[in-house]
Every structure is written in structure tokens, then in C-alpha cells.
Amino acid sequence: MPNNKASGPSKISYEMLKHLTGEAFSLSLVLANACLIHEDIPADWREALVYPIPKPHEFDT
Fold this sequence. Notes:
Layout: H1 14-18, H2 22-37
């Protein structure tokens, strides 16, 4: 994923995840894999915030 993107409702940015090391990285990987294996993704992880960004000029497409 690209850097400098807005974080979601959790306020955990991609940059934070990218800099995990050691045990923190291992535990987050175990958690993510367990969710995928058990096909049970927490509902809060499915939330997203969408903000409209006005264009500086008329959009004609």
C-alpha cells in the first residue's frame, strides 16, 4: 500500500504496520492468519470512512 494515506477508524496507519518488528510483527501475523483460516473477520475491521474531496474545477466525465 502507498504511504501517506488516511488511517481508518482504528487510527492505525499503514506506516505504523510497516515498522512493526520482532514479536509485535509475529503476533499481528498470527492474528491475521487466524482470522483468514477461521473465515472470521471482525466487523470493526470492515468499517471504512469515506470523505468527499471537492475538485478545484468542473468534472465533466
